[in-house]
Design a protein that fits this description.
By secondary structure, this protein is of the alpha+beta class. The chain has one domain: Gcn5-related N-acetyltransferase (GNAT) (Aminopeptidase), CATH 3.40.630. The chain has helices at 12-20, 22-28, 34-40, 100-112, 128-136, and strands at residues 3-6, 52-59, 62-74, 78-91, 118-124, 140-147, 150-158. The protein has a seven-stranded mixed β-sheet with strand order 1-2-3-4-5-7-6, with helices on both faces. The two termini are 23 Å apart. One of its GO terms (molecular function) is acyltransferase activity, transferring groups other than amino-acyl groups. It holds the Pfam family Acetyltransf_1.
């Protein structure tokens, strides 16, 4: 059973978790600094911080994942009271393909499915593991865009 702990600021455990995700950050050709991660945790302009959530995910007291999402946000920075945007979804590379990603996503759907009718996210085009995961979870490609000089695919799932 997974446990969730809300994050309000970058701490050493979270920083070390990001440093371990070498494959993900190689796609962006960066090594995540504390400053980069703090800036990445900021909510989108014009959106309310009470609707922004970041959770560390634990299995047997070990941090195995992270989810960052914004309620009421839709692709292209549009307000949409029925959409949940996943800004970052990481499962530790040593815990992938063990069902944790599916369990984390199912928890979000269960928690918000009565209030929101869609989930959207952007996945880096070269993130082949991520692309396979999101498609397996029933997400459909709805657009392409760019983020920090990277091509991304926008996915959506009706819930």
């Amino acid at each position: 059973m997974l446990k969730y702990r809300r994050v309000l600021e970058l701490d050493n455990e979270l920083y070390q978790f990001h440093l371990r995700q070498k494959g993900y950050y190689m796609l962006q050709e960066i090594i995540p600094t504390k400053e980069y991660l703090i800036n990445d945790m900021v909510i989108p302009d014009g959106f309310d911080e009470v609707d922004h959530f970041i959770y560390k995910v634990y299995f047997k007291n070990e941090m195995v994942g992270l989810i960052d999402y914004q309620l009421g946000y839709r692709f292209s920075m549009i307000h949409d009271d029925k959409c949940l945007w996943i800004g970052l979804f990481l499962v530790d590379e040593s815990y992938q393909r063990k069902g944790f990603g599916k369990e984390i996503l199912n928890k979000v759907v269960k928690k918000y499915g009565d209030f929101y009718n869609r989930i959207q996210l952007a996945c880096i085009r070269d993130n082949f593991k991520g692309l396979v995961f999101w498609k397996k979870m029933g997400f459909k490609e709805i657009a392409t865009s760019s983020y920090c000089n990277l091509e991304v695919i926008i996915f959506e799932k009706k819930i």
